Structures are given as C-alpha cells and as structure tokens.
Amino acid sequence: MEQAEATQFLESLLGKTLHVTIPDGRLFTGTFQCTDCDSNVILSNSFEYRMPSKAVEKAAIDEVTSTGQPRKADMTSRFVGLIVIPGKQITKMEVEEKRDWPASSGPSLSIRPKQ
Amino acid sequence: MVSPRILHPNVQISDITRQFRDAASRLQPGRLIKDEHFTLFEAVSALEIGDPKMDSGVLGSDHDLEGDLDISTSASAEETIWLMDELMCREVAWHMGYPLSQTLFTSVHLERLLWPEPKQLSEARFDRVESSKPRPPSLISDIFQPFCIGLVKCCDLVLSTITNTHYYEEEDFATQIYNRPLLHDFPVSEVSTLLQKARMWLQASSLPPKLSDALKARLDLRYALLGLFESPSNSAGNITERLVGSIATIEQIESSAALGRPTSNEAFTLKIQRKLASNVPPRPMIAIERRKAFVFLRQLITDTLMALQLLNITSSDDLLVVYQTFMAQNPQPAVYVRALLQTFLTYNHAVLGKFAVRDFIWQDIQSLVRPTVSPLDRSTELGSTTAVSQSQLYSQLDHFISRCSQSFLDLFRTFCLNRCRVRRTLCHAVLEWDQLQADAEEIDILAQSVCQEKPVSYPPGEEITFSYSLSSWVYHHKLVQLRTIVHMGFELSIYAPHELAGMCWYLSFLSSTHLSHLERIGFFVSSQQHSQPSSPDGARATLRKLYRQFTWLKATEALAKALHCLLVVLQRHGQLANPKPAYASHRLRYELRMRPFMHLSVPEPISVGVAQELSSLQKNSDQAILQQASQLSQIARKAWEEVLKEKWRLSATQEAGDSTQTHSETMQYSTVEREWTRDVQSSMRASIGASIAISTLTKALQESRINAVKAEIPPIGHRDRWHSSWPVPKISI
After folding, report:
1. Which range (B367-376, B390-399, B529-538, B691-700) has the least confidence?
2. Mean per-residue pLDDT of chain B
3. Which of A50, B373, B405, B453 could form a disulfide bond with B448, CB atoms 3.0-4.6 angstroms apart?
4. Which residue of B has its CA nearest to A78?
5. Could you tell me which chain B residue has the CA closest to the CA of A5?
6. Which residues of A touch B112 (CB under 8 A)?
7. Which of 3.40.1260.10, 2.60.120.230, 2.30.30.100, 3.40.50.2300 is the CATH number of A3-96?
8. Following DSSP, what letter does each residue of B383-421 receive, concatenated?
9. B132 touches chain A (CB under 8 A)
C-alpha cells in the first residue's frame, strides 16, 4: 500500500463507527476521530462492552443444563465518552458500515467522496 | 479482507485490524489523520484506555467484577446502623459537591437497588432473582432496603430542585447520575409508605429497645427529610415544631452512632465505578467524617425550614436584606438551600408565590421614588395632554418594567450563588443596570412632558431640574451593587494590601455619591408631597425607607473614609507597601481593579491620575489626616449604633409601637435577625478596631516611633478580623 493510499483508507474511516477490542476482552464502540503512525485511536461517544463475568456465565450455563431452556448472559455496557485507545492495546478492530444492497449502484460507501 | 459479519439487515461489520495497522504504520511520525472538526484540544480530555489512572474499567488483580458485589443477605442490627450512618456520610458528601460515583454510588446496596433500572418500585430490591418461596424477614430487606429507597428518593428530589435553578456544575454541585435514575418515576407517597411499614415492622420486632430505637430514629429522619425535600412549604405542621423534632432526631442518631459495627462483607467499593456510565477517570471514595456530617445535616434542615419563613415577607426591601443576610452566613448555606431560595422567586409562577413580577417591581419603585405615573392606575387623567402621548407613555412604561423584571429578580438570585460568583455576576449586572438607567431616563423625559411636571430648583437655589424618578430608582440599585462589589472584594481577599487604601477611598466615593443621590430622591418625594398630598402615608413611608438607607450609608462612608486615611498614613511610612514587581505598573493595576466600574456612564469613571491625586491626600500632613481619621471612626461607630437600633426589617420598625407581635412572630426570621445583628455589630467592632489602630498610630507619630510600627491586615476568619468586608489593619509597636 502506498502512503497516499494508506492515508486515503484511514481518512475514509473518519466519522465511522469502529469496534475495538482490547486484551482484557473489553470491546469499545465509538466514532473514529483520529489516529497516528502507532495506531493510537481516538473514539468519541464511545460505549464500553464487557463480557459477562464468570459467575454470571456459570449461572447461565447451570440454568441451561438444569432446565434445558436457552438462556442468554448479556454483555454489560456503559457510556464512556471520548477515549483514546493506545495502538498497543488493540487486539482487534472492526468497522461498522451500511450494507450495500445488490441493487444499489452508487459508489462504494467505504471511501469518502473526495472534496 | 475477511468476509463481513452482518449485524443488522442494513449494517455489517468488517475486520480491518491488519489493514488499519498496515495503513497507520505508513504514516510519517507526527502525522495525524483526523476529522477536520476534531481538535487536539479536545483530545486532551480523552480517557486513555488501559491506563489504570484514567480508565475506570481496568480490572485489578481480581478479575471478576460481579462476584465481588456480594450482598450479605443478613446483617445484625449493629451492622444495619453502621450501614445507614455510612450512607448518610456519603449523602452529605454529595450535598457538599462530590459526585455520586465517589460517594453514594460506592455502595453495593444502592447499586443493586438501582441497576438494572427498576420498572416498578417493587423491583427496587437487593435480591433481584425471582424466587418462589417467600423471603424470610430480615433487617436488610425489611429495614435497610426501605431506608435506602427513601435515601435515593431524597437525592432525586434534591437533584431536581438544584438542576432547575442556577448553579455551577462541579463548582457547587455534581449533577451526574451515571445513567442510574434515582427512582425518579416513583411517587414520594409510595416511598413514604415503605418507610412507615418498616417502622411498624420494627415496632413488632423483638430487638433490644436500644437498637430498635436507634433504627427507628434513622427511619424517622429519612421520613422527615423526604417530606422536607418533596415540598418544603406544603408539609403540615408548625415550622418551629418541625425544626425542634428533626434536630432531636439527629441528636438521637448521633448519640446512637457508636452502636454501629462495620459489616464483614465489603459494603462500599470503588469497583462500582467500572460499571457507571462515566467520562471521567476513576476517583477516590469520599466520606465525610461523622461529626461533620451531623453538623451539616443539622444546618441543612435548619436553613431549609428557616428559608420557608421568607415566604411570609411582603416587601421587596426586606426580601433583599433577607437574601443578602441569609446567604452571607458562614459557612454559606448548602447548595440545596441556595437553590430553594431561588425557586421562591418563581414559586407557583409568582414571587414568593404571591406577587406578580410586575407588581413586585412596581411596589419597589413606588416605595422608593413615588413616581407621578403608575402603570397600575391608568384611569387618572395625566394633565391635559393628548391621549396619544399618554398611551405611548404607558406602553413604554410597560416595556420598561418587563425589561427590568429579569434584572431585578437577578438581584435576589445572584445572592444565592457561591460567594465568588456573586461578585462576578454583580460585575456583569451593573453594566446591565447602567443601560437600564439610560432607558429609564428616556421614559422620565416623556413623563415630564405628558404629566406636565413642574421643575424645581435642586439643590435648592441652583438650577431647576425634574425628578427623574425611574432612573433614580435604577441608579439607587446600581449603586447598591457597586458598593457590594467593593465589599465583596475585601471579603474574597481580591485586593493586595497596598491596594486597600485606594479601594477604601473608592468605597467612600461610592457611598458619598449614593448619599447625595438619596438626598435628591428625598427632596423630590417631599416636594411632590407638598404639591399633591395624595398619599401622605406613602410619602412618609418612603422618607422612612430613605432614612434607613441613609443611616447605613453614612456609617459605611465614615468607616471607609477613616480606613482610607489610616491606610494612607501607614503607606507613607512604608507599611503595606507596593512590592513593585517588574512588569506591573500603577496604571495597569488600577485599570484591572477598576474594571467593573470603568464602563459605566454614571458614576463617571475616574481616571488613574485623578484617583491617585484624590486618594493620596498629598496636601495633608500625617497629623491632620490621623486627626480626621479619628473623628471619622467615632462617627462611624455612632452611625452603626444608629443602624442597629433600626432593626433589619422595615415593616418591623413600623410595627414597633404595636405590642401585638406574638411570640411566634419573634421566633420567625431568627436566622436573618441573628445574622443581620451580627453583621452590624461586627461593623461596629471594625469601627472601634479602626479607632484603636488610629490612636496607636497617632501616638507612635507623636513619639517619633513611627518607623517601629508594624501593620498587618488580619486574614478572614482570624480573631482580629472584625468584619470580613472591612480590612481594618492591626497595628503593633
């Protein structure tokens, strides 16, 4: 990837919702605002999602095994606002996009229209 | 690219980890890819994820969150008492301005009660798991749980009151609730019922009386607070009785606090901060000391109940004194009380729940300047002018009064802010009043022609002029505010010691200006009374009111002048000297200090040169100045004595001859009465202190020992600082 292309790719992501996972298992979603060469990422209006704790998970599994009914153990979430995630903390990064319908013939949404 | 996952028919998410890293690594070091509207200034406030100092979600060595929020299902009475008292200390900390996340929201019990958000009040329970068998009775679920619900509802009521008024976020109070609504949707009556049930449960229990009484007192106080915060004025019962009752309950709680014993399970933990919606870093737990918490609660209840008495006040004059005096208490009333007093201004859409704003303002104008026109009485023919100009006058008058209403009510509201903000807000307000004065003058001129007002010569023998009633009223209020700005400058220690002489001089200038203004108002009110003796009683009341203002100003002027003289002599002999820092100049400093006054049209701003000349008293010898100072301080003392005789309330002095004043009437306003008296007495002490300082200095001068003199201004709160608004130097040889 050329530098210009790299820049263009990153710029195309600005303003989109990113899902970033960090080593302790937490997932953050928020609007992509800024990054640098170390992949440090700034997200605004972020939410933190945490996997259900072992106790809750165990309780759910126990319930499933004893009752046979499906049971969900939800992730807990909370608003955390403006955050910076250091590049070294990022284990996974995903982008949320509008899905292209086969019928749509417009330009791909993944690249920002050039000014 | 890995094939995208579909979250929703319209939304997909794609893994871009590798692509992103690859692209980012190609950026030049230092180069940023950022949204055009995103600034690095904002970035500074971003929380760094993974940094334990910034990220409240970082888990410590213990990796499981939920497991630790283990709520004990049973607790002894002693433990319940402890839990209740701990919560109370945290509630007080919240009242004092600490956020919920550091105070009440460190309680595992409250967290369990409030999250997930209960849809019905019956869901607000410590044990959320549905269970088929009935719960065994326990102190935790039958006493402590209703107590917690009552406490949370109290917080909800307090929060609503505060957020509906003017306050400063974080400076006064933290309103964040971290996405945990404080049982906002549930009516107070249901919560009260729960508390009553708990009390009945306790009565039927077989606890030892000592413990049972201690728990009862805590439930009772919660019940009383709930009623107080719900609608302070509507609750039944005599204010004094309620006050005595609540204070007795607090005493009982305080004396039984020693019975409490900490729980073995961790009942308060910072781990809850990980779960709260929050854009701030983790912060430490705050609990106020028991002793201080009880002092605070007592004050809170006293102030709240005392504030209710203000609703009986009938004159704007008295009300302003009350707002000023009530808020000048040290320590200043809690933010809840300050908010409550603000709500009184729009209580049931009327000032104190009974005056329309227009009537309230007009009554104030009327009682001070007695203008010839009145918007309330349009039937009177005004002279022989045309109906057109008359209706024009009325419409302008209407317009003026509605323009004033905000500014006038803000006078009261301003005193409910924290002390620094009071001064700051007044500095802005005087500019507004300056503009109002110009508008009022226009109406006065129109009124002169419409009412065919006869000019009189004022000062007697000089040029003829008109009454200018409305603008006189505005000017009066402006001068009061200007004076308060200087006084609060002393109170807030804004001025450096070498600036005090200049500020005292300016204060005396403001007071003299105000005195001559009141004299002018008095002159026109009485000359009008001669020409049209329509309401001699009204005019008499006005002159009485002017006299009261006059006495106060006379005392202020004399003391300000005495202090000015004293400070000038001290400065001549190298005391309280200007430290002369490298980049300061007298002119710049003067501009800075006089900034609030420099943009006014009246009183005209005084240039630095003129101020310097007038305030330095160059032409007078030390001896002459001190002699004058000595006389002035005597005058000041006598004038304050005179003020003290007048009592704080205009209506009270009118009723003085009336012996029908009941006992409850004298009990009323006790806070205001006490504070006002203390204030005047302290001013009197300041005058005496000034006298002593002046005579010490005179003696030193006579004995040529003036160079051995040491002068200092005792700081606020010091025993020798007689009055916070009067910087009287303490002189020692």
Report:
1. B529-538
2. 89
3. B453
4. B277
5. B23
6. none
7. 2.30.30.100
8. TT--HHHHHHHHHHHHHHHHHHHHHHHHHHHHTTS-HHH
9. no
